[in-house]
Amino acid sequence: MRKSTLNGILSFLLSVVLAGGVCACGYASRDNNGKWFANKNLSTWHWSDNATDNSDDKDNNTSEDFTGAVVDCADGNGINLLSSVLPRSAYSENGISETADSAYTLTAVVTPENANDKRIAWSAAFADSSSEWAKNRSVTDYVTVEPSTAYSSTAIVTCLQDFGEQIIVTARSVDNSNAYANCTVDFVKPLISFTAVLNTNINSEYLGRLYVDGRENEITIMPEYGVGTVVGDYAEIQSIFTFTKSTYDNILKTMDNCSIAGVTGRMAKESFAISGLNFICPVSLMQNGNGNSSGAETVLNNYFFEHGWGDGTSGSSVAQIGSWEVSLNYVYGDRVCSTLECSGGAFNVRKDGLIKINSVTDVGMSDGGIIFD
Fold first, then answer.
1. Can you give the pTM of this predicted structure?
2. 88 half-sphere exposure, CB direction, 13 A CA radius
């Protein structure tokens, strides 16, 4: 394992921050003074990939073929560059250390095809050697270029470790210095950890944070990255919300004791899941859809109207989410770089926006006419 990667993982383990409506990498607990501390039961972190190569056999695209380095070749002047991932199984025969981050084979195609001298000189340099990160650093500590033979048209570019300034690899004609082509080498910043915050428009962390009245909820991802030159995207974002035991027990009792036909406590969910960063959370998500679904939704709606956070609710009577788990894939292009999870809670369910639904449970006759209860 690279020293820089180890340092990144250690940084991740130390970065657990948690508050109401905030979900941070790793699991944490609150002590008697209301402070958060990290447990040993931390979520896992890894840096992997489904690399893309030039073969048609997608089964060969394993995490061993790619880590952080990304090579992008462009057509040049009289020379075109082609690249392909060098599989880790070929490292030994090419004199590449097994601890290297990644390696690529570059091929320089000289035009015109009938050129007499196709010798190539290879070089690598920081795109901006005076940048804050690159100054006083040697590019060969991070990326090396080794031609297969002297002035060969093929060379192996090896990324030794993560770096924070883009590197330019140049293939230049020995015969004609005006004929050359460049390729860029970037390093995808690893996502070491992230904090997820629910509805940042709500200022206090202790207020109700989950809208259940049809308004949109928004999750904001606050990442911590390692060293690199480019940043990936988030995909496959999933959240699981779980009620506190007391809230769930109260929902069960409310359903069991309600007078709406076909509604029982078995219809209540302890947890419910949503996808994406922006989502609407109707009360229908919180019941399992069996029996009298519309009746169960009515009971849930009225429960949150009575017990959701807002004016007139306080203490143990407030409906609460006990835990909130978020998982996501960190991707760059079609590559899954890592999968991370985080956990947080607790926070209240909001009541504002809900309207109490009155239901007819019994119809009778009296001297005054029909009676609705």
1. 0.75
2. 15
